[in-house]
Amino acid sequence: MANAAVTTIATKRAPMNSMRKTALVAGALYLITFIAIAAAPLYQSVLNDPKYIVSSGIDTGVRWGAVIEMIVALACIGTAIALYPVVKRQNESFALGFVATRVVEAGMISVGVIGLLSIATLRHDVGTAAGADAATLVIAGQTLVATYDWAFLIGQTLMPAMNALLLGYVLFRSGLVPRIIPLLGLIGGPLMISSTVGEILGINPHVSVWSAIALVPIFAWELSLGLWLVFKGFRPSAAVGAASATPPEMPWPPQPRAVTA
Length: 261
Prior knowledge:
10 helices
């Protein structure tokens, strides 16, 4: 009787298949990227005070913000690694594009972080030293802040829009998740791209009504995708179709064909 009960319980606990594990990991990494929101208040002083580099005090906020953003950068790459095998089965070109834009996003985040950490280093080693040229240091600090701002625009504004178009298209066509989720990305992607291009060309400021409108669907797309993948995973019927689309492995070395008379 005891063995029968154990067998019954074991049969009820179906093992997590590889597609479910992939969805769980990718969804968790997408949600981790949202901790970038916590870095914004930590950077307020270094980004908004031109004389920050020549002032005294600790740089704890800047350094913790840098740690948070590097975690986000690694999570971005992680989402690409996790989803690439699934997306590749649907469209290899879009899968490669998705990975490329994710890597560029992580790289731009790293460039911005290096700029702000450089300000912290100059502030600590030179900024408060006797005889330091304050005017030159302020210019250097503003240059590094400008580098961060442009890296943020390319890495954390333009690249997420490109990600939304590439991944959103594949998910919408495949039905791996409810189509309303990738539809948000397909709507927000062009809006965010146009807002970013407008800012680069000087048409609209960094914070504008247009950029706010563009941000809403992109934010909703990434958040809803992360939550769905964590709690629901890929749709079973679409996931089965994706798995069956994987070509069979060819034996190596190749086996000689039998010759018939």
